[in-house]
Amino acid sequence: MGPAYFVIAILGCADGGSACTPVANLPARYATEEQCAAAAGAALIENSDFDYPTLLARCRPTAEKSAEVQERPRDKRRRS
């Protein structure tokens, strides 16, 4: 059986995209990967304040619908 739903993970990258660190998992859940991918661009814009030269949004499958989405602390945000 495939994943129950998808979530968007925001990744911070120091080198343009090959070595990235997860910085946030967003709480929204999507029934299909296509729905998740359609929302990823806007999610990246809304979560673009982490202190990394490159940020990426990736859809990740989650196996169980009842699983809690663990959000990472936002302490790595850029300070204005």
Summarize the structure.
Helices cover about 20% and strands about 30% of the residues. The protein has one helix at about 35-45, and strands at about 5-15, 20-25, 55-60.
Principal-axes geometry comes out as: elongated
Order of helix and strand elements from N to C terminus: EEHE
Radius of gyration: 13 Å
* Total of domains: 1
Number of helices: 1
Please give the order of strands in the largest beta sheet: 2-1-3
Largest sheet: 3 strands, antiparallel
Proportion of strand residues: 25-35%
Quaternary structure of the protein: single chain
- As a percent range, the share of helical residues equals 10-25%
Mean pLDDT: 80
Q: How far is the N terminus from the C terminus?
A: 46 Å
Can you count the beta strands? 3
Describe the structure.
The N and C termini lie far apart (46 Å). This protein has 1 helix and 3 strands; from the N terminus they run ββαβ. A hairpin with a 6-residue loop joins β1 and β2. The chain has 80 residues and is α+β, with helices and mostly antiparallel strands. Mean pLDDT is 80; it is low at 65-80. The protein is elongated and about 30 Å long. The chain has one helix at residues 33-46; strands at residues 5-13, 20-25, 54-62. The protein has one domain (5-62). It has a 3-stranded antiparallel β-sheet with strand order 2-1-3.
